[in-house]
Amino acid sequence: MNTSDTDKVFAGPVPKLYQLHMVPMLFEPYAADLAHRLAARSPARVLELAAGTGVVTRHLATLLPAGSAIVATDLNPAMLEAAQELGTTRPVAWRQADAMQLPFDDASFDAVVCQFGVMFFPDKPQAFAEARRVLSPGGVLLFNVWDRIEENQFADTVTQALAAFFPEDPPRFMVRTPHGYHDVAAIGHDLAQAGFTAAPEIATLAARSQAVSAPIAALAYCQGTPMRGEIEARDAARLGEATEAAAEALARRFGTGPIDGKMQAHIVSIDR
Questions:
Q1: Residue 100 gets which letter from DSSP?
Q2: Which residues contact 185 (CB under 8 A, 6 or more apart)?
Q3: DSSP-derived secondary structure letter, 104
Q4: How many structural domains are present in the chain?
């Protein structure tokens, strides 16, 4: 299994840790932002890609008009199971689906939304083309992506700590994938390659990432994401030690109590 394969593995204990720690620490503020942006358009039919454990889905279920239909998809069954267990305030159709080849008819949706999932798509123009295909004329593709890792202090600190812990083969998951698609010119080019003719609207939004402690933040990054697989591939017996090294680095930078750091993302919207 190569790195592009392992970057997409959200299985075993990862979904539970991801929901418990990563969602409140990183994803909740941006999920609320994305849902409010979409709700302003009152779409009748919404497709969510890479829904994960459903943080955006839950916001959409609360904010969208009662008659709006929501279909939430993800490639990973374990993540969908976790989302379904958490539930939503009203019925949502959950479905496993690959963004590269969506199992939906042309013009089936008024909106396609994706929170921090685009970075994982192996062929982004193809995924965008599929989103465009299933959108009705006048529909919107709305997604967000992380900005460069240097603008995201927790992720940057953890990545540097793991590089020092594994100096001969540093884990690069965070740089390579979550923070690897931050070039807005490249995003615009890929959307054009996918057949979108309008210019995308791209906003850069800074927010604060908060955790109850440095060890919890380290646990989230090292064991609640595919970073876990990278660490275990180097030395599974040292997962705990690597997590401790990340926790120590976070504590040195942000303190030993509750910690707070900058995070930043791009929000991209483009009409069909």
A1: T
A2: none
A3: S
A4: 1
